[in-house]
Protein 1
Amino acid sequence: MGRETPEIPQPVRSAIAELWRTPSHTEDSAFNSAAFRLLEGNSAAVYLAIGDSRLRQEPSTSAQPNELQTALRNFFRWNGAPWYSGPCPDADKAALALHQAFLATEVKRTLLAPLDRLDLENPTQRLHDPIKSVRFGPNNVALLSSAALGQRVRHDALKRFGRWHQFPTEKLDDFYWLVVSKREEAGPIWERTWLAILHKTWDEIGQVPVFEPIYPAPIEDALFVLLLSFAKESKEASWAPFAVPWVYSLTDDPFADAPRAPDSSALTWTLIGHPNEELEVPDRSESFELDHQKLDALKRRWQRLQAVLTKADTDQANFHPLTKHFFVKALADEGIDEIVANISCIEATLMLKEPKGRTKMEKRYKHLLGNGEEFKWLKRGYGLRDEYLHSLGDPKGTISWKDLGQTRWSVAKAVDRYLELTEQKPELNREALLRSLQN
C-alpha cells in the first residue's frame, strides 16, 4: 500500500526486461549477471532522485550498494523470476511490483502464534465438531491445515531463501493458531534486512529496556483477552489453556529478509490408533466449549481492553500496562516464577504507591470479589511468593498444581472484574477508581 503509483520509470522497465531475457538457470548466475548490475545501477539512479522513496530514506547521503543488492535479491525470491521453478510474473508485472515497493508507505505484518494443546468445541453439535475460526477485533483463532498455513506464510517463496527458512507446514498440520495482522510504516529498505544493525548507534546498542513484552504487542493483547476468557478454576491440573512456544512474524514487504523457520518440535503431539498402526496428531488436551454467549463475552473483553488502552499516557489512564504484561508473562513461566508473575499482576492492577500498600490492595480486592475462596488463594500465593522472594523457601521444594491453578484463578477473576469496573466508571482514572474501592 502506498501513494498513487506513477508510470514505471523506463530505466527500471528496460533493466528488468533485459534481466528476463538473460539466460540464467540458477540464482547465482542471475545475481552475478551484467543485467542484474544494470538493474541495480538504474534503481539507484532513479530512486535516489525521488526524495521520499524508500531507497532515499537513509541515515547518510550516499547509496548503500550492499543494501540495495540485498533488497533486490529478496524481491525476486518473494515474487519469483525466470531462474526459479514455479509461477513467474512477466517483466512488466515485475517492474510494476518493484516500482510500487520502492514507493510504498505501508506494509502488512502478519503474526502467527501456535496455541499448543488448545481445542475449541461447538456445544450445539452432537458429535465433536471443532470450531474452525473465532474472530475478535483484528484477531483470529483459526484451525489451519498445512495447505492453509502454507498459503499464509508463502511457503513456496520461502523455499527460495534456503532450508533454514522453509516453514515446516507438513509438521504443523491441524493446530490452532492465533493470527494477527496490522499495518506498519514501510520505512527505508535498510531497515528490512540484517544490514539494519550497521545503522544502530552505540547509544542504541547499549540500552536495555526496563521491561519488554515476551510476545509482540498485538499478540500480547490478544493473549491477554484469551487467557481471561478461558480462565477456569483448576485444583487438579495446570491452569494454562494452551502454550505459545514462539511467534512467527513476517511482512508482505518484498524487500524484507525471510524469517527463520520455527521449531516444530516445541509443539505437542499425541498418538492415536491401534498398536503398530498409530498416527501422531496434534495434542488437544485442553478443550473448551465456545457458544455464542462465551464468544460475545470474549469480544466484550476485547472492547474493554481497547477502551483502556486508548487512555494510556493521558491523565485519564485507568489501566496499568504491567497488568497485561505480568498476566501474559505467567503463561510462559513455571513454578515459583509463575506465582511471582501472578502476584506482580495483581499489584499492578490494584496497588498504589502509598503507605500500607498491600493492606489497602487486599481491601480493594475484597471489594471487587468479596472475602471468599479467591481471596484465600490470593493470600496463599502471596505467602509462597514472599517465602521464596526473601530466600526463605527450599530451592528443592515443590509447588502443587492446585497452588498454581488457584493463584492464577484468583488473579484472573480480579483482573476481569477490574476491566468491568473501568467500563462502568469510565470517568475515573486509575487512582480515583482504586480509591473508590476502599470506601
Note: The first strand starts at residue 106 and ends at 114.
Protein 2
Amino acid sequence: MNKKTIKTIDERIKIIEQCFGVEFEFHEADEKVYLETADDYLFNEEGISIEPFLDYTENINELVKIDNTSVRCGKFRQTIVFESESLVKYYPSLETEECKLSIVYQPFFVGIIALQEGYDKEDPYSFYIAVELEYLGEKRLTEEEETILIRRYLYDVSSKLGYSVSIDTFNNWPDFSKDDESFSKYKDQVLSIDSIPPYTKAMDYYIEALGAMNADIRFLSFYKVLEYFSPAVSKKEYYEEMNKRLDAMSVLSRTYEDINDLWELSKKYKKSLKDDEIPFTVLSNCVDLTMLFHCLPKKIRLRLKKDNGLKKDEVIDDKLIEIRKELGKILCDTRNSIVHAKSNYEPTGFECSEEDRAVLNEFMDKLCQCIFVWNGRQSENYRLK
C-alpha cells in the first residue's frame, strides 16, 4: 500500500459515485473497500480486498447493463443465475484459451447496477449469484458465443449437482419497509369470503406462475390456466347456441337448412377444442379485451392495431374479433416456441420476443384473474372446480 495506490482507489470510488450514484468507503487500516448503501448500511463486513477492487474498477466507467440478466465492464461479464441449494459456490471454475468462467457470490458489477436502477436498495449484493466471465487475453467472443459458453457451463453445473442452476434476471421487489399506499390500503381490512372467487384447480397453476423465477416458465403456468378452462368455455358456448337453435325450431317449421346449421355448429364446437383455438376461445368469452388491451407489450399492441387497419390512437372495439384471433395466435405460438425444442420448431413470426415476455406475463396475470372471476359467476352446471 502506497500513496499512489490510495490515490487510485479514491479516484475510482469517485467515478463510481459520479457515474452510478453508489457509495464506497476505503478503510486504510484493514486495506478493504466497503459498499455503503443509501441508508448508511455497510453491507459486506469483510469488504473487498484492494487487488480485486482495482482489477474490477480498471475500466469502471465502461460498466453497462447488457440486458436484464447481464452486465459488462472491461474484460468482465457477469450473468445472474438462480440456484436454490447453495451448493454451487463449491463448483470449480472453467478455463478456455480465451477466458475463465466461475461462480461468484455477491457479484460486484451486478450489485452496482442493482443499486443504480433501484432493484434492491437495502442489500443489493446478497440476493445475487452470477457466472463471471473474465477474459485472459485480448481475444474476445461475440455476445452470443459468450451466452452459449455460459449456458454450457451451467448445464455442467446442473448435471453434476443434480438440480437446476439457470440464468436469472435482476430482482424488482417492492420496498415493503416504506408505507406504500398500494399496500397500506389493505391494512386493517377484513375480507368477505364472497369477495374471493371460488376455488378451482387452475388457481394452483396461477400460484405456480407467480412463484416461477423464469419468465418462460411463468408464461407456461399462466397458459395452463387457459388450457384448463377452454374446454368448459367451449362447451358452455356450444350448449347455449344449440339450445337457442332448438328453441327456434320448436316454434318455427323445421327445414333442411336448420339441420345443416346444427351440423355446422357441431363442427365449430369441435374446432374450438383444438390447441390453437384455446386462447381465442377464452379471450372471446371470459374477459373484456378492450379493458385489458393496455396491459399487453407495446410492440404487440401496435402490431395488433396495424395488422387490423387501426391507427395508434384508435380504439379496438370495431375489430375485436380479428384482434382476439391474432392475439390468440400470438399467445399460442409463444407457448409453442417455448415448449418445443428449437431444432424442431419453425418460427411463425407471431411469437412474443423474449425481451417482452415479462410484460406479456403481466397481461397473462390479469387475464387469469379475470377468468377466475368469470368462473365464479357461472352456474353450478358450468363452474369448474
Note: The chain has a mean pLDDT of 79.
Protein 3
Amino acid sequence: MKPFKLNRPVPIPMIIILLVILSSVIYAFNYEPTAIPDDRIAKTDSAETNALSALSQSVEVDPLDEFRPNLQELNQQQIALKDQLSKHNAALEQIKLQVTDLQNGFSETTKQIQVQSRRILEQNKRKKPRIVKRRKPRQTRPQWILASIDQWGASQTAVLQDGLQLITMRQGEQYRGWQLTAIHANEHQVELVNARQQPLTLRLH
C-alpha cells in the first residue's frame, strides 16, 4: 500500500471539515440507542392520552344543545297532556257512575210499569164488558133537484136530478126511501116524505 501523499498543501479549514465528517461516520457505526424505561413510556402515553381527551372534550360540541329548548317544551306539553288525560278519565268515571244510576232507575221504573200493567189487566178482566148501543145513522136530507114537472093528459110526472142521473117519478112512487106524495104543477113544486114521516119539498129553479 502506497503512503498517502499530498502533492500540495491542504488548507486548514478543509482539514477540519474532513475530521468532522470522519468522526461523525465513526460515531454512527459505534452508536447504540439508550433504552427508555417502561414506566416513563407509560407515563408519557398516559399524559398524551389525557391531553388528547381533554382537547377532544373541549373541542367537541353536544349536538343536542340546539334541540334542548324544544325538548323542554315538548316535555312540558307532555306533562300538560297527562294532566288533561287524568281530568278526562276522572270525568269519564263520573259519567259512568251517572249512567249506572240511570240504568238502575230505568230498571226500577220498568218494573213498576210492569206491575201497574198487570194490575190494570186484572182489573179489566174483573170488570163486566159494557154493552155499547149503536145508534142508527141519521138519514140526511137528499140533495136532489126538481128538474121539471111534465103532464101527459091527466097524469103528472116529476123529473128529479140526483147528481148526473134523472129520475122520473109519479105520485105514490118511491126512490131511496122517499115517497112522492104530491105534485103541484101550478106552484112548481113537489112534496116527498120518508119512513120517519119527514117532509121534503123540491121547487123548480
Note: The CA atoms of residues 145 and 161 lie 5 Å apart.
Protein 4
Amino acid sequence: MKLDRAGLIGIVMIFMGLLFFKIGALDKILMLVLWPLLSGSSDGKAVLLFVLMGSLLVVNSILTTSRIKNSSFIKNLDERKYLKWTITLILLTYIAGIIIELWLRVSYGASPFTTFLAVNNGESSTSITHTHVFKSVIGYTISILGIKVPSSIHTGVSLVPFVYPLPLLVVVTFPLVYILGALSLNGRKDIHKLIIVFALTLCLISMVDGGMFSQPGVIGLAGLLVVYFAKKPFSLKNLVKPACIVLLIIFAGFAVELVGSNSQYHDVTVVEQTAPIDLTGYNATIIESTNTKTVYRIQTNMTDKEIFSGLSDKLKDRCGGFFVSWNIFSYI
C-alpha cells in the first residue's frame, strides 16, 4: 500500500502522539504549549490531538491512493457535501450535550446555572458551558472493554449513574463525524487537508470533553466553517458567515455565564445524601430540604474552585454529588 505525502505526515503524527503518551513529561509540556487551543487540565488531550489528526490523514490517503480510489463511490464524492454533514452532526452533538445537562438539572430540581460534581468513584464535574457527559460514557465504555487508562487521564466515569444512557449518542456520532470528516478531505490540496483535519480533531475532542462553548469546540468549528464557506477566488467576504456563527456561539456562552452568575452567595444542592453533612466554616444555611435533595446557601467570598475543592472533601462518601451555583466574577 502506497501513501501520499499527507498520509506520510499522518504516520509521523501518530508516532509522535504515541511517543508523547509513552513519555508523560512530554505530554505535560505539550499541553502547556497547546493550552490556548485545548484548554482544560486533562492529560492525554495532546496525545489525542496528534493521533486523531494523523489517523485521519492516513485514512484519507488510503482512500485516495489504493484501489478504492477507482470505485464509483470515491470518484463521485462531493467533499463539500460531506463537510456540510460533518459540521451538522457536530452541532447536533453539541446541542444534545446541552440538552442532557439541562435534563440532569431538571431531574434534581437544580438551577441550569450550576456546575455539578459527582463525588463517588472519583470526582467528575460538568456544566452547560463545559460539559463532560459524553466523556463519562466514553470512559465507561473503555473500562467495560477492559482497556486500562493511566490514572493521570480523567475519564469522568463517576458521572455515568446520573446521565446514563442519554450520552450513548456520542458512541454513534463520534465515529460518524470521523468517517464523514475523512471523506470530506477527498480531492483537496494538502494544506486544505491539514486545516480541516486540525479543526475536525479539535471538534472531535470537544464533542467528548468541553462541548460547544469550550475553546477547542469554538476554534475547531470556526476552522471547518471557514473552509466550508470559502470560495474561489478567496475573498474576505467568505469569512462573514462563519464569523457571525462563531461570534454568536461565543456571545451565547458569555451570556449564560453572566446571567447565571451570583456574586452574593452560592447555592449548593446536595443529592443522594447517605450520611450527615457538616458544613461548619462555610456560613451555610439550609433553605430547602426534601427526600431527594438538600439546598444550602453559603455566604462566602471564596471562588468557585475553592468551594468545589473544599466541599468535595467534606461531601465525599456522604452523597452522590452536588450542584453549585457559579460566580464568574470570583475569578477576576
Note: The chain has a mean pLDDT of 88.
